[in-house]
Amino acid sequence: MSWTETGFGLNDYCVLAGVIIAWGIYFFIPKLFSKQFRVLIFIFSLTVASIMDNSFGVIPFDYYDIMDGPKYTGMDLVVYLLYPPYGYFFLYFYKKLCLSDKYIVFFISIATIFSICYEWLFHKVGVFHYKNGFQIVYSICFYLFFQTFFIIYYRLVELKH
Length: 161
Hints:
The chain crosses the membrane at residues 6-27, 39-57, 77-94, 103-122, 134-156. Keywords: Membrane, Transmembrane, Transmembrane helix. The chain is mainly alpha-helical and 161 residues long. The chain has one domain. It is built from six helices and two strands. The chain has helices at residues 10-28, 35-56, 74-79, 83-96, 104-124, 139-160, and strands at residues 64-66, 128-130. Strands 1-2 form a two-stranded antiparallel sheet. α2 (35-56) crosses α4 (83-96). The mean pLDDT is 91.
């Protein structure tokens, strides 16, 4: 792979557009959670993304690079601004839809399909670069696991209130 930062490209514009759209939606939709829980949602979303990137995006796995190569740039950090609103939207729709237990698997499956489509789009515009045999289909396991864990976490927090 020989991509390098050569200037502001399509991937940079797509990330900035994604950040503006996601945060714009977040600021305009009604808030269903307390400020404290919103902060926890944001921290959880950033932590999961960071753990995954710093586990599977580096040696010994080194399955993908973000943006323009293996070295971090400022735009790599901007990519992380996409994760907090996504985590919020995930729990927002879960709560807003008032899903019974029999629909949770369906909800997580739909959210996983949406996540894979979003990741695929970002792969196509050059935000994610897969390597060393990694394929997008492997991301399905991560989405299923972390979205399930996120709902369990939400339910535990909800029970305490």
